[in-house]
Amino acid sequence: xxxxxxxxxxxxxxxxxxxxxxxxxxxxxxxxxxxxxxxxxxxxxxxxxxxxxxxxxxxxxxxxxxxxxxxxxxxxxxxxxxxxxxxxxxxxxxxxxxxxxxxxxxxxxxxxxxxxxxxxxxxxxxxxxxxxxxxxxxxxxxxxxxxxxxxxxxxxxxxxxxxxxxxxxxxxxxxxxxxxxxxxxxxxxxxxxxxxxxxxxxxxxxxxxxxxxxxxxxxxxxxxxxxxxxxxxxxxxxxxxxxxxxxxxx
Length: 250
What we know:
Blueprint: E1 11-15, H1 20-31, E2 35-40, H2 43-56, E3 61-65, H3 71-85, E4 90-93, H4 108-136, E5 139-144, H5 158-178, E6 182-189, H6 203-212, H7 220-231, E7 240-243
């Protein structure tokens, strides 16, 4: 059987789905017959993406305005998947914020925002989906970390890297705890073309990051890696995928 057929009919919840990696993944998986449940704060963008997916006539798309820093929002997004499609196969914890600045700038508000989105947002997703996966005795968590979760991104990426190291640690612990019937995949992308690079209020850091991201590859590159993990047979768990632009040294 063609492995891509393993995606058809699956119900996939995606956070941060209004642009970039989340949007690209939603479009790719829906083109392969998945039913996607889109969450993000920008409702107008979600509506447009869902309409375009539904017009294609393959997988279906629904959406719900979601702020991953609010636990009840994330729970409502998971509930939407169950109410619309009767099951949940995959949760893609994708929403993220990258605020790059030296620690000496003491941008505590941005540190807290990254912790709330990048770490607590993932935990809220796990908390909402895990009981469903355990009841079904099946499911797949896909958590987006970063190359910066393997090596500290410098200069200015100390806290961002801290949050992405945390995502890797949580993912690995989750795999140990629930593996057997529930799969866990961590994706660690390098420079991917998205809005992530504009997340800082520190001008010098933004200028550095924008220049660094000139080597970025399209978000579709990560979407294909996610599809690869999902389409494997149930007894194959792709635990970790690291991908970068060929030009990226870091």
